[in-house]
Amino acid sequence: MSKRHCFIYQRDRDEFQEVDKLDMAEQYFSYLSNEPDQIETYASQNGSDAVLLLDTAEQKWTLVYAKGSGIVTQRTARRRADSASRSGMLIKSGERVGVNATLSVLSDSNIGDLSKSVQNKYLSHNDLRGVE
C-alpha cells in the first residue's frame, strides 16, 4: 500500500502543516478519489485555507484551495506548494517526502501566472525606461 501524506495551509501561520488526525487525512484522500469538488468545502469547514496531498506511489502532489479563500492566500499557498514539489516536506518522523514530485492544482483559481511573478503579467506591457 502506498504511503499518503496530507498537509493543511492556514494563512495566519503561513505554512503547510502535517495533519495529525488520521481520519481527517483519510477523508481528504477519499474525496480526492471519489468527489474532488468536496475537498474545497471540507477544507473550509475544518478551518484550512488550502490542502496539499501527496501520494508517494505516484510521486504526485495535489493542491486544493478551500472554498472562499482569497487570491493572496491562494498565491501564497501555491508558492509554498511549488517549493514542496521541488524540495519535499519534512514530516514528523524526520523523513523528507515528495522531493521532485509533480504538482497539480484541482481548484479553479483566478491567479494564473501570478503565483510565479507579478512582473510577467503587468510590467511587460509598460515602458519603464523613463524619459530619454
Describe the structure.
The chain has a single domain, classed as Severin. The chain is built from four helices and seven strands. The protein has helices spanning 22-34, 37-45, 71-87, 118-122; strands spanning 4-10, 15-18, 50-55, 60-65, 88-90, 96-99, 102-105.
Quick gist of this model?
By secondary structure, the protein is α+β, with helices and mostly antiparallel strands. The protein is 33% helix and 26% strand. It has helices at 22-34, 37-45, 71-87, 118-122; strands at 4-10, 15-18, 50-55, 60-65, 88-90, 96-99, 102-105.
Overall pLDDT confidence: 83
Low-confidence stretches: 114-126
Largest β sheet strand count, sense and barrel closure: 5 strands, mixed
Helix-and-strand structural type:
alpha+beta
Number of helices, counting only DSSP H or I runs of 4 residues or more: 4
Shape: globular
CATH class: Alpha Beta
Provide the number of structural domains. Answer: 1
